[in-house]
Amino acid sequence: xxxxxxxxxxxxxxxxxxxxxxxxxxxxxxxxxxxxxxxxxxxxxxxxxxxxxxxxxxxxxxxxxxxxxxxxxxxxxxxxxxxxxxxxxxxxxxxxxxxxxxxxxxxxxxxxxxxxxxxxxxxxxxxxxxxxxxxxxxxxxxxxxxxxxxxxxxxxxxxxxxxxxxxxxxxxxxxxxxxxxxxxxxxxxxxxxxxxxxxxxxxxxxxxxxxxxxxxxxxxxxxxxxxxxxxxxxxxxxxxxxxxxxxxxxxxxxxxxxxxxxxxxxxxxxxxxxxxxxxxxxxxxxxxxxxxxxxxxxxxxxxxxxxxxxxxxxxxxxxxxxxxxxxxxxxxxxxxxxxxxxxxxxxxxxxxxxxxxxxxxxxxxxxxxxxxxxxxxxxxxx
Length: 382
Prior knowledge:
Elements: H1 4-14, E1 19-22, H2 29-38, E2 41-43, H3 47-59, E3 64-69, H4 77-85, E4 91-96, H5 109-121, E5 125-129, H6 136-147, E6 151-156, H7 180-189, H8 202-209, E7 217-220, H9 224-233, E8 238-240, H10 248-258, E9 263-268, H11 269-274, H12 277-285, E10 290-296, E11 299-300, E12 306-307, H13 316-322, E13 328-331, H14 334-342, E14 349-354, H15 369-381
Parallel strand pairs: 1-2, 1-3, 3-4, 4-6, 5-6, 7-8, 7-9, 9-10, 10-14, 13-14
Antiparallel strand pairs: 11-12
């Protein structure tokens, strides 16, 4: 007799799902182990970053699916609406629904019980699956997720998996990839490092970067960074973010994992501080075609230049190194920027570009969001 986990995996394979991401849930631990073996899979640090990574995969032509528990919907609702749904990208959500059946954790009840209403209010389609026999509903709903570029949530009760032996391997923690001695030395000496003094605004830095972005997939932070990039270096391979702050690096990571094209992310300090766990995900997967450029002006440039913590207490390069990046550099001058961009790529790279606050008075991007998506998809297919 086929187990429900096997039935669901077989359904996904029949419908050509080929890119997955997940966060753990005890109720679906067997399913998650099988997903990891069956598909290209990304283990996440937060549900929201998974939306961005899956969006990047969808841009590159993949059919993504995410596996989360019901509480995770609360962490991703804005990204689902302002990124996935806004750009009309497909995403199937398989949600382990907590708080509805033999739940022992009281904090799971509020989201579990109200989840259908939350999804309906957001305009996101959903299907309840309350037994293993109801898994056939996935077969009915899944095709339109990808044919019509929709977001759809399958709310899976723990009853679906009841009565089946888990058989999950126990994963013992392995040795750390970071040498503890070097890590302590870097941390202890970090306050003694003299930073180069920023001399350029973000616009000036993008101007210097522009020649090195030719024929690269460039994912640009929302607001002024995207407008400045359009004014300086518009090309069909630029994905301009128009919403979903904090999703720039996740989208770039998703594209890099599913494409052989060179990918450059233009992120900012405020955006990275909003979703720093993505740096851990990127370092763990380490795609060698991804360069993340963090233009750090110590301010939320698109909302009035309010200061970020990067101005006073956070060294983003050290953050990246702490998360496992091996190839990092801090730059400020034109010579430094040109030198690092002119080097042969050495795998996953994090460039911490120091800037002074300020926005260039440039026009809005005259291209609609669906046209932006179409152009990038055509470039990636080419």
